Structure formats: structure tokens, C-alpha cells
UniProtKB/TrEMBL annotation:
This is CAAX prenyl protease 2/Lysostaphin resistance protein A-like domain-containing protein. Residues 97-195 form the CAAX prenyl protease 2/Lysostaphin resistance protein A-like domain. The chain crosses the membrane at residues 30-48, 68-85, 131-150, 214-236. Belongs to the UPF0177 family.
């Protein structure tokens, strides 16, 4: 399925470049092909999941304990990621709109694919020992590898930072999805993280610390892992208590 997405994406990107350079398509409308490729990829993934592997995407609305913890974590991360938007130059020009779609498209597609399909299926495989742990690790590792495809790394330290951060986020997203059973929440956090990476280039509170970007990312990743593991533990504890009661 990802191969289909990659082929469609590359094809539409090449088509966009040709249409823009020949003057057939104005640069102001280049974002439309970005939108089209993500719509195609998302629709194809949903059809594959429902018709071929009969997988269900979950979007439950439950504010009871312990699900409420996942909702609170989601809210905190979203507020944090958008908090300093006023201190940065954010406009929805052509480039801004294209970047916004790059933030939104992967957030929806990758969460449907990695958490909604792969993680969701692996954690119910009875043949695996500790399926929840292995499903979390595999989906987080795939999430990290997926982010290595982008050729925008200037050195090995940037590459390592991307691997570590993406893996930590993968664990966090798995924890939020488990505890809330709602993919929309992981999509929202994923979008806010992408938005932060694209548009929030200045964070005032960093001025008070003499830290380089790598150390900052390590601290963030540690926070992602701690919160994600805690949410997974809450889910595991709730699941075991239900079994004992039965």
C-alpha cells in the first residue's frame, strides 16, 4: 500500500513540476496536486483496510477513566505546539498553504496506516509474545524509517535526531491510540507536530537554556517515551483488570 502511495506521490509531484514550468498551472495552484495525492492515498488505504484485511478504524469518544488521560495529553501537546505561533511569521500564501497540506496529509495517512492498520492488527495477533509491546515497537520503528525517506539531512547528527524523535513520537501515538481508541487524537497531535516543524522556527523559552538542538530533541524524545509508556501501562492494566473481573 505504501508503494502505491509513493508511486502516486512521485507521479503527481513530477506532473506538478511539468505543469508549473510549462505555464499550464500557476504556482498559486500547485497546492491542489498536493491535496489530490493525499486524497488518493487516504482513500486507497481506507478501501484496502476495509475490503481486503477487514480492519476497523476506531474513533471512539470516551471521556471516562483512563481514556480521559489520553485526551488531556493530546490537548497539552496541541496547545504547546501552537502556543508560539504569534512569535513566528505564518501566512497562508501559496508556499504556506502547500506546507500546511504537507502537515495535514501525512498526519492523516500515516496514522491510518501505522496506528490504525499495522499497530491495530499486530496487537491482536495471539501468536506473538507480548503483542502490545511488539506492536508498539514495530509501528514506532516503521514510523522512524518512514521519516528517513525525506532527503533533507545535512549531516549524520540530523539523521540521528530524526530517527530518535520519530521513534519517540511513534511510542507516544501508540499510547494515546490505545488508551482512547480514537485515531483522530493521534492525527491532531501528529498535525500539530508537523505544523510546529514547518512554521514554528522560534521558541522564546529556549533563550533561557544553553542547549543545542540535539540535546533539546533528546529531552523531547524522553518525554514522548515516558508519556507513551505510561499510557500503554494504563491500557494494559485496564485490560488485565477486565479479564480478572470476567
Amino acid at each position: 500500500m505504501y508503494l502505491i502511495f509513493a508511486v502516486l506521490s512521485i507521479g503527481l509531484l513530477i506532473l506538478a513540476e511539468v505543469l508549473v514550468k510549462t505555464g499550464i498551472l500557476s504556482k498559486n495552484y500547485g497546492w491542489t496536486l498536493i491535496l489530490i495525492r493525499y486524497i488518493i492515498a487516504i482513500v486507497a488505504l481506507i478501501l484496502y483496510s476495509q475490503k481486503v484485511v477487514h480492519n476497523k478504524f476506531n474513533f471512539e469518544f470516551d471521556l471516562k477513566w483512563p481514556s480521559i488521560i489520553g485526551w488531556v495529553v493530546t490537548l497539552i501537546f496541541i496547545v504547546f505546539n501552537f502556543w508560539y505561533i504569534g512569535d513566528n511569521d505564518f501566512t497562508l500564501s501559496n508556499n504556506g498553504l502547500s506546507s500546511l497540506l504537507y502537515c495535514l496529509g501525512p498526519a492523516i495517512f500515516e496514522e491510518l496506516w501505522l496506528r490504525g492498520l499495522i499497530f491495530n492488527r499486530l496487537r491482536i495477533v495471539n501468536k506473538l509474545d507480548h503483542p502490545l509491546f511488539k506492536a508498539t515497537f514495530i509501528s514506532a520503528a516503521l514510523f522512524a524509517v518512514l521519516h528517513l525517506i525525506l532527503p533533507d539531512y545535512s549531516n549524520w547528527l540530523d539523521l540521528l535526531t530524526q530517527i530518535i524523535t520519530a521513534f519517540g513520537l511513534g511510542v507516544l501515538f501508540a499510547g494515546i491510540y490505545c488508551i482512547t481508541n480514537n485515531l483522530a487524537l493521534t492525527m491532531l497531535i501528529h498535525f500539530s507536530e508537523n505544523f510546529n516543524s514547518y512554521f514554528i522556527t522560534y521558541l522564546p523559552w529556549f533563550d533561557d537554556f544553553d542547549l543545542n538542538d540535539f540535546i533539546v530533541n533528546l529531552i523531547q524524545t524522553f518525554i514522548y517515551l515516558i508519556i507513551g509508556i505510561f499510557l500503554l501501562w494504563l491500557f494494559w492494566r485496564k485490560k488485565n483488570s477486565v479479564k480478572r473481573n470476567d
